[in-house]
Every structure is written in C-alpha cells, then in structure tokens.
Write a structure and sequence with these properties.
Elements lengths: L20 H25 L2 E6 L8 E2 L4 E6 L19 E3 L14 E2 L6 E8 L12 E7 L11 E13 L3 H6 L2 E8 L3 H9 L3 E6 L7
Antiparallel strand pairs: 1-3, 2-4, 4-5, 6-9, 7-8, 7-10, 8-9
Length: about 220
C-alpha cells in the first residue's frame, strides 16, 4: 500500500533584485524635466509690467498712456525704478530727460512741469551734422565768435548736455545755402549765452556728448 502521508511542498527561493540602468536614467530625465518646467513657471511669475516709450521722448514733452506701451520684463528689485501703468495720472506727465524709442521709462525721467529746467531754441549749424545728431541725442553746443574782419576766433563750449528735439529740414533756395537748423532743449542757465551767439552770428556746431576718448 502507498503511504497516506501528505507531501511537504518545497520552499521557494526569493527572487533576486532586478535593476536596469535605463530605468534610472529615464526616471532622472523625468525629474529634471519637471524641475525645468517649475523653474520656467517661477520665472514667469516674477515678471512685472512696466512702460516703454513708443517713440523718442525729449524733455518738455507731455505724455499720457497712449504714448507708452506695456512690456512684461523681469527686473528683480529694480521694478520700482521704472514707470508702471498705475503711475500715469489722467492729466499725463512731463518728460524731464530723453528716453529713446522702445526704452523702458525710468520713473526719474518724468515729472510735472516744475521739473523741467530746459528751454527750446533753434540754432543754425555751420557745416554738416554728425549722423548721431538725431531726435533725443544729447549734444554739446560749441561756438566760435565772429570778429570784425569776418573771421572766427577759437571755439568754446556754449552749453553742455543739450538735447536735440528735431532736425528741421531746409526749404527753399535761401535755406539750402545756409546750414542745418536744429531745435534744441538747452539748460535755462545757458539760454542767454546761446541767444547771444545767435544774435552775433557766431559759428555754432553741435558735438555728440560723451564721445569715447582716443587712445
């Protein structure tokens, strides 16, 4: 007869740990991708909206919101130094120093009428104008005094840090024979000297300010 005893099952061996390096690499790429997306979102959240000039602004211009455009930029702790939409009152602002087209408008570049310390004057320039003398450019006004024998003395600076408002296109035969006319914003303290040079028919030249020194 066969034995009626129950057979004891054999004990299974534990499975060895399986590790595929490709799995670890894939998991690492997923983690890096997620962190990158989070970083982009965080950077976007740190952007602020400030105002930029639609066109060149010169001292004395009165501007309102229509003269400016909103730009979203990351400025860190410097956002308070630039003009925001909420900073522009209904009556507008007055530009106190030149701002180039497309440039962010510094809060220090606008104010009320009392902050404008310049006056407008038109001068006729001897010789050709430098290409950099355009609207918004900062220039120094030089003049050479006219002597009785119709010669000119050595030039000297009449006014520094004047701003070009516009170059007036010549019209007619008489204008074509004279120099270029340029409207300038000159510090009020120098206006009398500039007007005297114009009245004396001195030779006036415009030199771009802050020219690099020759080495």
């Amino acid at each position: 007869m066969k034995s009626s005893s129950t057979a004891v099952p054999k004990e299974r061996k534990p499975r060895s740990f399986w590790f595929d390096p490709r799995f670890a690499i894939g998991l690492g790429l997923v983690v890096v991708s997620v962190l990158g997306v989070l970083g982009i979102v965080a950077s976007a959240d740190s952007s602020v909206q400030v105002l930029a000039a639609r066109s060149t602004l010169v001292p004395g211009d009165r501007i309102d919101a229509g003269d400016l455009q909103v730009k979203s930029v990351r400025l860190g702790d410097l956002d308070a130094k630039y003009l925001a939409a909420a900073d522009v009152p209904a009556e507008g602002l007055v530009v106190t120093r030149a701002v180039s087209a497309g440039e962010l408008v510094p809060a220090s570049a606008v104010g009320d009428r009392s902050g404008v310390r310049v006056a407008s004057v038109v001068v006729v320039v001897q010789g050709s104008l430098p290409k950099s003398v355009t609207a918004g450019a900062v220039i120094d006004v030089w003049s050479a005094s006219r002597a009785d024998d119709r010669s000119y003395g050595p030039p000297s600076v009449l006014a520094s840090s004047a701003t070009v408002v516009r170059v007036i296109a010549p019209s007619g035969m008489v204008s074509a024979q004279s120099g270029d006319s340029v409207e300038l914003l000159v510090p009020r303290g120098k206006i009398a000297r500039v007007l005297q040079a114009i009245a004396n028919e001195d030779a006036i030249s415009l030199v771009p300010a802050n020219l690099p020194a020759k080495g």
